[in-house]
């Protein structure tokens, strides 16, 4: 889990089918020593894990990514320059699993867009 170490939740609201969260990234986390020294960038896998963890919190159960139909990394996140990130996760259950749309953004900067299915 990345929550509580890599990032902390500063604000969260939830309504049926959607969770909206502001996270604060820990720029001192060890992952940034390798990704990348002197120019930290949040790895894409960490963005996906954050989405997964926020979905699990909303559903109150473990989930696994079944299929990513869209995963667009639009801008890099430097945790020093951009410590706060807004994450919106919308979800709906159907016969295929949990259909999820998510965005990571802050103000006018969109860092990532995701669409996929979790089981």
UniProtKB/TrEMBL annotation:
Q: Name one GO molecular function term.
A: lyase activity
Domain ApeI dehydratase-like, chain residue ranges per copy: 13-100
The name under which this protein is listed is: 3-hydroxyacyl-[acyl-carrier-protein] dehydratase
- Organism, scientific name: Chitinophaga arvensicola
